[in-house]
Amino acid sequence: MNAPQSHIQSFGKNLATLGPIGHLPVAPGTWGSLAAVIAAPWLFIPLSIPVKILVLAGLFILGSWACSIAEKEFGGKDPGQAVIDEFLGQWVTFLLLATPDIILLVCGFFLFRFFDILKPWPVRSSEKWLPGGSSVMLDDLLAGIYALAALVILERLLPADILPSLL
């Protein structure tokens, strides 16, 4: 029989899964990214860049702790139910956005999902660089940096009237 969860363990597990989002039966990582996109225009994009960086650092630290708990609770490395890492990576993608432009939010969502799934170097190898939940968070942080760079290039290279026609 399993021992009852402490309130701290329960909070950590719920933080890692973003409540019910990580328990959705199909593609919980995509749902975690979508939750970040929906929250970003109100909770992240309006902030100054230094405050955004502090938020991302705090999210990395809390998410690392929560993912360590989730790995013990769900058994195994980087359990699918833990989606706070996708939330972090998605917000990294939006770090330089000054306004919540719907076109850029949608492009950023797809770019992050692309790099999170593709895992180009060093994203895949970073999964082994740090212990516990920190490695879970790190690979999505790096995928978010790739997506951020791609989003900045897309925004700078394409005229504003072309972006809407891409969707």
The SSE order reads HHHHHHHH
- The overall strand count is 0
**Cα end-to-end separation:** 52 Å
Average residue pLDDT: 88
Residue fraction in strands: under 5%
Helix content: 55-70%
Count of helix runs: 8
User: Which regions are unreliable across 5 or more consecutive residues at pLDDT < 50?
Assistant: none
The 3D shape can be described as: globular
User: Which structural class should the secondary elements be placed in?
Assistant: mainly alpha
What keyword list fits this structure?
167 residues, globular, mainly alpha
Structure overview:
- It is a single chain.
- The chain is mainly α and 167 residues long.
- The protein has one domain (7-166).
- It has eight helices and no strands.
- The protein has helices spanning 7-17, 28-43, 49-74, 84-93, 102-118, 123-126, 133-157, 163-166.
- The longest helix has 26 residues, at 49-74.
- The radius of gyration is 16 Å and the shape is globular.
Summarize the structure.
The chain has 167 residues and is mainly alpha-helical.
Blueprint (SSEs and pairs):
Blueprint (H helix, E strand, L loop, with lengths): L6 H11 L10 H16 L5 H26 L9 H10 L8 H17 L4 H4 L6 H25 L5 H4 L1
